[in-house]
Write a structure and sequence with these properties.
- The strands form 2 sheets. Strands 3-2-1-4-5-6-7 form a 7-stranded parallel sheet, sandwiched between helices. The protein has a 6-stranded parallel sheet with strand order 10-9-8-11-12-13, with helices on both faces.
- By secondary structure, it is of the alpha/beta class.
- The model has no long low-confidence stretch (mean pLDDT 92).
- 45% of the residues lie in helices and 14% in strands.
- It has 2 domains: 3-187 and 365-389, Glycogen Phosphorylase B (Rossmann fold); 207-363, Glycogen Phosphorylase B (Rossmann fold, 3-Layer(aba) Sandwich).
- It is globular.
- It has helices at 17-31, 44-53, 66-74, 79-97, 128-131, 138-154, 163-172, 220-230, 248-257, 272-280, 296-303, 316-319, 333-345, 350-363, 366-389, and strands spanning 3-6, 38-42, 58-61, 102-105, 120-124, 157-160, 181-183, 207-211, 237-241, 264-267, 284-287, 308-311, 325-327.
- The chain contains 15 helices and 13 strands.
Length: 390
């Protein structure tokens, strides 16, 4: 039995949200003793790091075009052609060569194409491109729309990471067979041992923390405006951790115009150790997001026993299980400001924070989630073999 996991969408960095999803599944599969049943398929960018991160697994590099490889040595601009070749041709060749029985695509990447001749299981994290189509380049929108039509019509099973995403999927794709949609939440865990004791922090305590990228739908501007409203009522600084791109220039402009440079910090990236220290030392975590397929970071913060405030948008109330603090409407800066003051003045007890942490650890345990993926994959191997005998 050979089950392939398609990781060709991952570059060198495995620490972003989408890559973390795959990493947690793979770690969980190892913990339940199933590593020998899986083959991890990467492209050149992630191959060596995958072997380091997942030494218990067989890791193979997807077949690539020799001609395009030559061209990429002339100019790196051709690397996108190589990734397209792998999606359209190379992955199919790799699957056939290694006689893989079923393929799990852990991300609904717009370049992904389903593999011919074996069952395909695709994980759809969200339908952001549908809900925020006005924010997307028209060409990218068309490509993403085409890809998702293929995923929904031709995949053998669709995994969604929350009930909200399932509802969204059924709303936009009314023709989809609901029986092939499986809700499997993300695995979430924290490494509580990775603390070097130095607590290198980007600013003085106390502070409020937000860990998200700076895309429009993460709604960082509302948190910034809320902080501006209450900055003279609290001693806290505000830290945003996320890649300095997308909407980050707008945040930086607001910070400058409102003289917040000494109180608000935008941090591009940190090591896992320093990120964990950032979580541990925060007085409050805030996620004002407008759209989440799952919403990992509020759960991570809760696992570090940090009080959390989120919006009630999309999946957030569902995946946080109504256990944290909420505000609405999501774009109402004054409502968020009032929620921040309330929680800072009436922080949950240590006992309550431990209780929430325990609930999330049991609900999103990597071994539990990995077992669900394993059972789903194995069910299609048996089905595929029976069909071949008929």
């Amino acid at each position: 039995m050979k089950i392939g996991i398609n990781l060709t969408y991952i570059g060198k960095d495995i620490n972003d949200g989408i890559s973390n999803h795959a990493k947690d599944i793979i770690d969980g599969l190892n913990k339940i003793g199933k590593s020998k049943d899986f083959i991890l398929i990467t492209d050149k960018r992630f191959y060596e790091n995958a072997r380091i991160h997942f030494p218990q697994f067989e890791v193979i590099e997807a077949e690539k075009s020799k001609l395009i490889e030559i061209l990429t040595k002339i100019s790196n601009r051709f690397s996108i052609l190589q990734r397209c070749y792998i999606a359209l041709i190379g992955l199919n060749k790799t699957i056939k060569k290694h006689k893989i029985d079923v393929i799990l695509h852990t991300f609904n990447d717009k370049k992904t194409r389903l593999v011919k001749g074996i069952p395909n299981i695709i994980v759809i994290h969200d339908l952001y491109f549908k809900n925020f189509s006005h924010m997307i380049n028209p060409l990218f929108y068309y490509i993403t729309k085409y890809s998702h039509n293929q995923f929904v019509q031709k995949s053998d099973a669709i995994v969604v990471i929350s009930g909200f995403v399932k509802k969204d999927l059924l709303s936009y794709y009314k023709f989809v067979d609901e029986s092939k949609i499986h809700v499997i939440p993300n695995a979430v865990s924290i490494n509580e041992n990775k603390n070097d004791g130095n607590n290198r922090l980007p600013c003085e305590k106390p502070y409020i923390l937000c860990v998200n990228n700076h895309q429009f739908h993460k709604n960082g501007i509302t948190l910034l405006k809320a902080f501006d409203i209450i900055k003279n009522e609290i001693p806290h600084n505000l830290i945003f951790l996320g890649k300095i791109r997308y909407e980050a220039p707008n945040l930086l402009e607001y910070i400058k115009e409102h003289n917040l440079s000494s109180r608000v910090y935008l941090i591009d990236s940190l090591s896992e150790t320093d990120k964990n220290n950032l979580y541990r030392n925060a007085d409050l975590f805030v996620s004002p997001s407008l759209h989440e397929g799952f919403g990992r970071t509020p759960i991570e913060a809760s696992m570090f026993k940090i009080p959390v405030i989120t919006s009630r948008e999309t999946s957030l109330a569902e995946t946080t299980m109504e256990l944290v603090n909420y505000y609405e409407p999501a774009r109402d800066a004054r409502a968020l400001a009032e929620a921040i003051i309330k929680v800072l003045k009436n922080s949950p007890s240590e006992e309550e924070l431990r209780r929430i942490k325990s609930i999330y650890e049991n609900k999103y345990k990597a071994e539990l989630i990995a077992q669900k993926y394993y059972d789903l994959c194995v069910s299609f191997i048996g089905k595929n073999r029976r069909e071949q005998l008929i």
